[in-house]
Write a structure and sequence with these properties.
Layout lengths: L6 E2 L3 H14 L1 H4 L11 H4 L1 H8 L3 H6 L9 H12 L22 H12 L9 E5 L5 H6 L5 E6 L2 H13 L4 E5 L15 E9 H13 L4 E7 L14 H4 L7 H4 L11 H25 L19 H11 L10 H23 L2 H18 L2 E7 L10 E7 L7
Parallel strand pairs: 2-3, 2-5, 3-4, 5-6
Antiparallel strand pairs: 1-7, 6-8, 7-8
Helix pairs in contact: 1-6, 1-16, 13-14, 13-15
């Protein structure tokens, strides 16, 4: 882990504004997706970088070896790293896990729960944990100590039943509630006595917690956000005054950028993904020719079984699905080879876009942090575990400012 400090209340706005300037200034480099464009507008401004990226292999893209990259790549990489740098939150220490508490929890998930739980260093001990989007309540049970209570809110009735059985088995004072957290009545579970926690609640779900918990006066809030693009609208709704004042208007597609890395994929999964992408890129060339429209045509996710089809059959079936008429005799072998080549180009061009993944994620997390600050919370932002355990390793801690007011 890095020795970089975590961010405290008085540093949040300055860092947010620096990130905002960086992302706004370079938006043409990260907004368009190489997958959907044959050529990107920025390539004309940076021909040397464009040429260097386009002549590289897929293996070179996968290795992420960019030490020879021409300008402005090294400068952008350095600035992105500097603006994204944030250290570990302090280790609060954690009571040992109860006997067999981790049974039935996948190893990686349990490690994430342990790491998250260790970072909840609040000035006052929690009285009543509220595990938001709790699943079976593994996180809440891990946090629970003597003289504390636990409420778990979960939408899936089967998970609620399973969680209740586990808590009863361990003789813990936990209440498992079948609750749609997006419903209006979810606010009734939140109050000034609660310490609300959410580990990897997606998009609107964790935003809902941040808004409701602050509105209801929860004493403590701990959120590790995930899946920023899982929102009901097509555009991002900023939370804080600073983000509302920003010139950045983020689409749902933009919000997917921080999630686009595949840290934990198996070799087989990566090969399937590569084959699927190469075929889609080959089909993309075909549909542009056949429709006479030089534009990307979105296609649905397809079952893995489609990859077993010969390339021609794959394209004909996909064309039928998208109501594209195939005329003449396309050169299938050339199209398939062009799809493979385009995959290498796309992956290498994406290296530029990927420089902005973490800065954009930091921008989004700091928007949430600044919102909590506006609601009267003392806020800290840092990482709770190493990146390989989960790329979504940023944690937001908010605690009601209970300092005595001198008047």
């Amino acid at each position: 882990m890095t020795s970089t400090p975590y961010l405290q209340t008085n540093q949040l706005l300055e860092r947010f504004q620096a990130l905002d300037r960086f992302l706004t200034r370079h938006q043409p480099l990260w907004h368009p997706r190489p997958f959907t464009h044959l050529r990107l507008a920025w390539e004309d401004q940076h021909p040397q970088l464009s040429h260097w990226l386009r002549q590289r292999t897929l293996e070179q893209a996968e290795s992420s070896e960019t030490s020879e990259a021409p300008p402005p790549f090294p400068q952008l990489a350095a600035e992105a790293a500097q603006l994204s740098a944030v250290g570990e939150l302090p280790d609060a220490g954690l009571h040992p896990a109860g006997h067999r508490l981790d049974v039935g929890v996948p190893g990686r998930k349990w490690q994430q729960i342990e790491a998250f739980s260790r970072r909840l260093a609040f000035s006052q001990p929690a009285r009543h944990w509220l595990d938001w989007c709790s699943g079976k309540g593994h996180l809440g049970r891990r946090l629970l100590q003597t003289d504390q209570q636990l409420t778990c809110l979960e939408y899936d009735a089967e998970l609620v039943s399973a969680g209740k059985a586990l808590s009863e088995h361990h003789h813990l004072p936990a209440t498992h509630v079948h609750q749609d957290v997006m419903a209006a009545d979810s606010a009734r579970h939140l109050n000034g006595d609660k310490s609300a926690v959410a580990l990897h609640a997606c998009g609107d779900l964790h935003v809902r917690l941040i808004e409701l918990a602050s509105q209801q006066g929860c004493r403590q809030i701990a959120v590790a956000p995930c899946c920023y693009n899982r929102i009901q609208g097509k555009a991002y709704q900023p939370l804080s005054g600073a983000a509302r004042a920003s010139a950045l208007a983020l689409t749902q597609e933009d919000l997917g950028l921080p999630l686009s890395e595949a840290v934990t994929s198996s070799l087989r999964t990566r090969r399937q993904r590569d084959t699927s992408m190469a075929r889609r890129l080959g089909f993309d060339l075909l549909q542009r020719q056949q429709r006479g429209i030089d534009g990307y045509l979105p296609t649905p996710s397809l079952p893995v079984s489609w990859l077993a089809k010969p390339f021609e059959q794959y394209c004909r079936d996909l064309a039928e699905l998208k109501q594209v008429t195939i005329n003449g005799n396309p050169d299938w072998a050339t199209l398939e080879a062009a799809g493979q080549r385009r995959l290498a180009e796309v992956r290498n061009l994406e290296l530029v876009r990927n420089l902005f993944r973490r800065p954009l994620e930091m921008w989004l997390v700091l928007d949430r942090a600044l919102f909590l600050q506006e609601q009267g919370y003392v806020v800290r932002v840092g990482v709770f575990c190493d990146y390989p355990l989960t790329p979504r390793n940023l944690l937001l801690l908010g605690e009601r400012d209970t300092a005595p007011q001198h008047g």
